Amino acid sequence: MDELDNMVVEYHASMGRKVLLMAIFLLICFVLVVLSCAWGTDNSFGTAYQVIIDHILGHQYEVRSWEWWQDHYIWENVMPSIAVSIIAGVGLAIGGVVMQAVTGNPLADPYTTGISSGACLGAVIAILIGFTFTSAVGEYGIISNAFICSLIPALVVVLISKRVGNSPTTIILVGIAISYFFNGMITFLMVMANPNKMYAAYQWQIGSVTGISWSEIPVMCAAVIVASIISYVVSSKLDLLMLGDESAKSLGLNVEQFRTLCLVMLSILVASVISYTGIIGFVGLVIPHVARFLVGGTSRLVIPMSMILGATMLVFANMISRTITFYTDVPIGIVMSFIGAPLFLYLILRKKSQRQIF
Amino acid sequence: MRGLSENEFVTDYRRGNHKKLLFVFVCSVIAVITFFVSLFFGPSEITAQQCIDALMNHYGTITDPLADMVVWDIRIPEACMALITGVALAAGGAVMQTTLRNPLADPYIMGVSSGAYLGVAVFMAFGICIIPGLTQSYSIVINAFVVSLVPMTVILIASSKGKISSGKLILIGIAVMYVFSATTALIKVLADEETLAEIYQWGVGSLSGQEWDEIGIALVVTIIGTFFLALQARNLDAVNGGPNIAKAVGVNVKFVTLYSMTMVSLVTAGVVAFTGTIGFVGLVAPNIARMFVGNKMKYLIPASAAFGAMFLIIADTIAKVVTPTGIPCGVIASVVGGPIFVMIIIRQRKKALL
Amino acid sequence: MELKIEDLEFSYTAETPVLKDINLCLTGPKFVSILGPNGVGKSTLIHCINKILEPTKGKVYIDGVDVSTITIKELAKIVGYVPYSANDTFPLSVVDTVLMGRHPYSSWKSLDDDLKIVYRTLRMLGITHLAMRPFNELSAGQHQKVMLARGLVQEPKILLLDEPTSNLDIRHQIAVTKMLKKLSEEQEILVIMISHDINIAAKYADEIIMLYGGSIYATGTPSEVITPENLQVVYEVEARVEDDHGRPHVLLDDAVSMDEEEYFED
Fold it and tell me: For chain B, where are the alpha helices, taking DSSP H only?
């Protein structure tokens, strides 16, 4: 069976190529991380690399020596935002992949069910009115509010699905209606507020990866890791979903149940990320398409690639944000918009010969 | 309609159409009634009697200048603006939805809202106006209008360059919109608190604070634009059937699409320049009108316009009654309209499942 | 194997049933064709068999087991499905598309075995040269073959097909139908195909089920079912049926008059 073996070999070879591509981008991501540290501290690439490796290896420095300061600065000032960038990048990219599969819509992003307006409303309530659902105060109050409120849209979608099914169109329409409602409420509160507070509320909404401390990261990280594992495990089911409901059912997938499961997982994932960072756009929309373009359509490959690309992109955006922030304070959400929009345009305009996305 | 004679068939068809016109009529009447009701409410402390007197005496001898000013220079303009804006946005929404064959389209889809917002943000933050030396309010209007048309221009240029499908054109519009939003966000983030508040306020949309000449311009723009759109009604019906069908009946799809979308953008820009971006009406009014009068543009445009006007004036009146300090009516529209829209969706989807 | 349907009824709303009084028993490997005018419920019937739809009344038994007691994943190992059209939004390569048919069986370790099964099926259908091509770059005929391959790699005992040849040119219509007949014999599958072409179905099918008004109007061999009388009632056409090597061949004469004269006396 030479031909047969050939085909199997070729299939594995193409998979191997794609894994190699993933490895390359992983390397790029790592390089960018080190570069960020180097730029942030006016060090050379090599020095920054050394400091990072040493820290990971548990090397202790003489307190207050030059090395100690370098280590301290990198790990207390630069690394947190990098860590958040990676986690958020991974989380939002996966969110995009899953949401596009669940809705069968290439223009979907993780916020399609209105979750972003929910989170904003929660945060705005905390900032402008000072009311928190968990009676926590300050930063934690905002985060917990955002988290709780961001789950409301998902709840509404699930409840409505019970009555009319959760076809992709229903999900999208309900998401739109929810966004309108919540955004209306947000506008109401913002308009009533005095300019100082409104500024703070607005600041929160724009995505940012700075100002998050190490103690807050584990929660985000845990959610993203769990979601990544789940997504990867069910990746073949995601593929089935994209075939259309009939075909998916005929191949053994319980479509309604699975969609609901995905929506719930997505909500918790996205809520965990944006409660801390605010709304970072584009990652969820564009990264899945780039990943799909590089490694082909099966979710088993697209998910890991999206994770890597998402992390890389946000680390890169963070790097730019930090550089510009030397002059003025530009959060990552805005940088991402400026990177994402042209990228989006480019993906649309690719000529047919180069394998179109849309 | 079995076994009807030809004449009976025609009469039956006409009767169906009369029902549609009835919808338009009813909405218009409600709009007008609400118009007058709204004049009795507002931030200023004026009694109902004073209002009535002010209305009666305006062209005669004015006995109460304060009431007269409140009614004629503040409330009536605002109510007029509500009607005009409702008509413009709803009709625009109807045309967009038909042209793009997508019930989720709204008149801002060519980037009008993000463009206007950017233009205004630029002026408020940097004081740059496209035509220098104008008063504050005119500068805002000019900036908003001109910049709001930039995305549309980009799309028109792109479409003239070669064969780009209308799906792609929409995506290009979306991409341009993203770029504009990003720039506006940047400006907002860098601005100081007061400026941010101002920009935000404008973006929310407000019907108040209009001068009569502004209303005049908005009215003219809306009437002319809607008129030109109505002329295209039959062509739009053809486009709605799908590109193949449209071509088969001799309609130049690309031309009609671009023409309509441009007209809608111009009208929308003309209105938004004065009021700011009021959302929701353009999306919801045509959908609801469609439930009553069907998809034929000859009825859908007037029906959407009538419903849109009615919807906005009611929203505005509620806003004035509930909080005299003035919630922007756009907020009421979204907050009240959102859940209603959801319920409509549920009912429609339930029907669609059958 | 045996497919038995008892008193099946299906309706979307309370009032109008799409299917009613469906009683059917199909045994052994066979090539069965379902015929009937548009909208009569052919697709609905098929969807009730593989649990895409749930019948409002009645039961479906496969080898004596009530289908409602089997999970859809288990059912997917028994009943293969080739849909009328394929979803194109996120296209995969041909291999990956066909590979999805192995989903009910696949585990983390089975990839190579699954690939071999895929390849054998591609070879049987003559499309190995398309293996790595993206699905959305194929012609309609190639599309159909890939969909067929996906259904076949499910290694089903029953294969349901919803008008698999309606988008193909005549050569492929005949070739695919002929191949399905051969499959039913060689792989011992019960092949149930909704057909739009009466003559091709008549030429190859072992049994014909004719649906009319939501119920089964006639079943039997092609010669038994395809008669001028039946055609007149079910399809509302006037036709002659001639014998062609033991199989009926339909020659169409006219459509039954479309006036509403039957409703009114003059």
Answer: 6-38, 48-57, 65-69, 76-100, 112-126, 136-148, 150-160, 166-190, 193-204, 212-231, 233-240, 243-248, 253-275, 281-293, 297-322, 329-353
- C13 CB neighbours in chain B (<8 A) are 354
A-chain residues within 8 Å CB-CB of B334? 180-181, 183-184, 187
In this structure, are strands C158-162 and C17-27 parallel, antiparallel, or unpaired?
Answer: unpaired
Rounded mean pLDDT of chain B? 82
Domain A2-354 sits in CATH at: 1.10.3470.10
For residue C237, the enclosing domain spans 2-263
Using CB atoms, which residue from B2, B3, B354 is nearest to C13?
B354
Where does residue B284 rank: exposed (0-12), middle (13-18), buried (19+ CB within 10 A)? buried
| Min Cα separation B338/chain A (Å) | 5
Q: Work out the minimum CA distance from C20 to partner chain A, whole angstroms.
A: 22
Return the residue matching tokens 């007197």: B53
Q: What percent of chain A has pLDDT over 90?
A: 30
SS3 C169: coil
CATH number for the domain spanning C144: value is 3.40.50.300
- Tell me which residue in B3, B353, B354 faces C264 most closely, judged by beta carbons: B3
pLDDT value of position C265: 43
pLDDT at B350: 65
Chains touching A (at least 3 CB pairs under 8 A) are B, C
Q: Which residues of B225-257 are buried (b: 16+ CB within 10 A; e: fewer)?
A: bbeebbebbebbbbbbeebeebeeeebebbebb
- Is residue B114 domain-resident? yes
| Inter-chain residue contact C100 with A7, CB threshold 8 Å | no
- As for the ipTM of the complex, it is 0.81
CATH code of B59's domain: 1.10.3470.10
Q: How many domains does chain C have?
A: 1
Task: Quick: pLDDT tens for C156-174.
Answer: 999 999 998 887 888 888 9
Asked whether the beta carbons of A274 and A146 are under 8 A apart, the reply is: yes
Q: Is residue B339 part of a domain?
A: no
Domain count, chain B: 1
Predicted confidence band of residue A357 (pLDDT cuts 50, 70, 90): very low
Whole-number percent of chain A with pLDDT over 70? 95
The pLDDT of residue A83 is 92
Q: Return the minimum-mean-pLDDT range out of B108-117, B230-239, B247-256, B267-276.
A: B247-256
Query: Does residue B236 fall inside a structural domain?
Result: yes
Mean pLDDT of A86-105: 94
How much is the average pLDDT of B207-218?
A: 81
Looking at every residue in chain A, the average pLDDT score rounds to 85
pLDDT at B164: 67
